[in-house]
Amino acid sequence: MVALSTRQKLEILADAAKYDASCASSGTAKRDSRGSKGIGSTEGMGICHAYAPDGRCISLLKILLTNSCIFDCHYCINRRSSDVRRARFTVQEVVDLTLSFYRRNYIEGLFLSSGIIASSDYTMEQMVAVARSLREEHDFRGYIHLKTIPDADPELAHQAGLFADRLSINVELPTQAGLERLAPEKDGVRIEGAMAGMRHAMEDMGEARRKYRHAPRFAPAGQSTQMIVGADDASDSAIITRASSLYDRHRLRRVYYSAFSPIPSPSAVLPLRRPPLLREHRLYQSDWMMRFYGYGAEEVASATDPVTGCLPLDIDPKLAWALRHRDIFPVDVNRAPREMLLRIPGLGVKAVNRILASRRHRRLRLDDVARLTTSIKKLRPFLIASDWRPVQLSDQADLRSQMTPAPAQLDLFS
Predict the structure, then answer these.
(1) How far is CA 132 from CA 126, 128, 162, 406, in A?
(2) pTM, whole model, 2 decimals?
(3) Where are the beta strands (DSSP E) in 197-312?
(4) Which of 93, 222, 228, 301 is most exposed by smallest CB count within 10 Å?
(5) Domain residues of the chain, as ranges?
(6) Which NCBIfam families does this chain map to (predicted)?
(7) Phi/psi class of residue 347: alpha, beta or left (left: φ > 0; alpha: ψ in -120 to 50)?
(8) How far apart are CA 333 and CA 356, in angstroms?
């Protein structure tokens, strides 16, 4: 094998990491190195080509330790049988790259994943060694996210949590049948067992910190996971139900959805075409409905097509749910509780908070609601204001056609 330079390795292993979406950092502990010999800081905000609340674009170094792997998962470009160029970083190379990029103000943290080399334990030891070196030898106080390996020794996962801000274990596919078909070397029971162990460790360390001031933090940004959408025949309804179950049982911070993307030299069992990217977007919207709008998984699933079990692509899932439950609309913005206001299509959390604050001082008219939201068009059939009652609109049988945006040709040079 020809020896590769660090730059060549970076080109290969940064590109190989692009398929992993679960790399935001919201909710981590705030740290800085002012008044110390350390390096780096965290703001508790999102990282990985994201925008912070103050408008800053912040990012992290997102790489694999190696793209070599002893597993042969059909959907993975780095699988054992794939004909791709292989590379591997040493622990010291990853540490040096992270510190060098940070000092140049290129990054604010590290996201590190890896293919499985030699064994799960050996690979996990190498990843923990990177985090340990950054924290203990260089006093690095930036963000670190480690992708943990469910087959590895639980003690290694525990050590990872002591050095990393966030840990994640990918469930890979929404159903056990899909996992058995496309990733037969992975075990869904072991994956969920590792996630449960992570949750218990976080709860135990959290309890210890409440009792003892100097108890160490354990993965303060929590754990996340990712599901591949469209590689198997799982419906959106099944994906939504699985995501809700993961949130409830393992207290996940986020579930990420990644639309399957055809890879070079694909396995014969994979679909020939990728799913619409809009499907991934609709699943993120449904996830938002469960996390911030108070919908249950069965409610969101009721917005799917009864035949295909998939969410409509032409309208968002909140509007689809409202059209399926027109009997509860319109909602009076001057009297309805917060949970009902959140179900009005077109009203977000911030807009609802503004409405609740404003109606304490006066009865709201339709123009008042329009000033508190970005657009009033979608809201009109679903709300009642002091001067507005949508009798004709709410009774129309073709309401969906009126709410569906008309197709438009995008301007190439806009």
Answers:
(1) 10, 6, 9, 54
(2) 0.85
(3) 223-229, 254-259
(4) 93
(5) 6-222, 325-403
(6) rSAM_link_UDG
(7) beta
(8) 9
